[in-house]
Design goal:
mainly alpha; 69% helix; 305 residues
């Protein structure tokens, strides 16, 4: 997998779209689709679609807000210096936007998530407000605040928890109004693939992060073991599928295994030693795997409901 050719820096609304890092958005869409599919057949009168819509808005807004917040916090710390980083544009680090504007974009996105979450809490229960506050705090303090946990190697735990377990099981919860075993089980492979996206990103950034003292999990594990972690997460997601589908009584969910055909390309690239800019298309390919996996998994689980 070869490195992409250099492209011109986007301007105007395209700059802010690039800053939102759209290639990471499958991590927000897939858990909502899968979690909602787990609720099919368990809600009197059928799925409550406006709740699914609000759950999707919450997940997308949190993802975008976290991306902007990371851009802002990394930028003002100097860890996104344009001379040492590869990958997507850094609005603050490359001097493309004022730090205050990026901070306001993050706050606005968190606000959108809060409004949609409040609507769900009003319909389902105040416990969702607690989950929402925790999710917003986790998104901000990933790289923000005096002791960002993303700099301590805990970013993968955040992604698995909030874009795996919470987003998937939470999307089931707002439909059935209770914890659901299938939703919790389905959150595991979803969380694995969401985490694989971050591992790809952090694998690419090991040299720069090492230089500025950003101790991500990839930096702590080193290049070789981080590559093994990526493969383990992707393989683990597919291994989990028949277990979730079978034990959950929805064997059609095993349709997600078809997405393994797309997984070969990023896995081979990582195992072959792709690094730096060559890992940018790997991130995109992993996002496509996650989207295909999520679509097939959700469709299979829904058909079995």
């Amino acid at each position: 997998m070869t490195a992409p050719a250099p492209t011109a820096t986007p301007r105007g609304w395209r700059l802010w779209l690039a800053g939102a890092r759209p290639r990471t958005l499958p991590a927000a869409v897939v858990p909502v689709a899968v979690g909602t599919a787990c609720a099919v057949g368990r809600v009197d009168g059928g799925l409550i679609w406006w709740r699914a819509g609000c759950a999707l808005v919450v997940a997308l807004a949190l993802q975008v807000a976290t991306n902007y917040a990371n851009d802002y916090s990394d930028g003002i710390r100097g860890t996104d210096d344009d001379t040492r980083r590869v990958g997507p544009v850094r609005l603050v680090g490359q001097g493309l936007a004022r730090p205050g504007a990026v901070k306001r974009a993050a706050a606005a996105s968190f606000g959108v998530a809060g409004v949609a979450g409040a609507a769900l809490a009003a319909a389902v229960g105040p416990e969702l407000l607690v989950v929402g506050v925790l999710a917003i705090a986790a998104g901000w303090f990933y790289t923000g605040g005096p002791r960002p946990y993303g700099y301590a190697g805990l970013g993968e735990a955040f992604v698995f928890t909030f874009f795996g377990v919470v987003a998937t099981a939470g999307s089931t919860y707002v439909q059935v109004e209770g914890l659901d075993g299938l939703g919790l089980a389905a959150s595991v492979p979803v969380g694995f693939l969401a985490t694989a996206l971050l591992v790809t990103n952090n694998l690419r950034d090991i040299p720069g992060d090492n230089e500025v003292g950003k101790r991500t999990l990839a930096v702590r594990l080193g290049d070789r073991r981080t590559r093994s972690l990526f493969v383990a997460l992707v393989v683990g997601a597919f291994v989990a599928v028949p277990l979730v589908a079978g034990l959950g009584g929805r064997p059609a969910g095993a349709a997600a295994l078809v997405a393994v055909l797309l997984a070969q390309k990023p896995v081979v690239a990582v195992l072959s030693g792709a690094r730096g800019p060559a890992l940018i298309p790997v991130l995109a390919a992993t996002g496509r795997v996650q989207l295909a996996f999520g679509a097939l998994f959700a469709a299979g689980l829904a058909l079995g409901g």
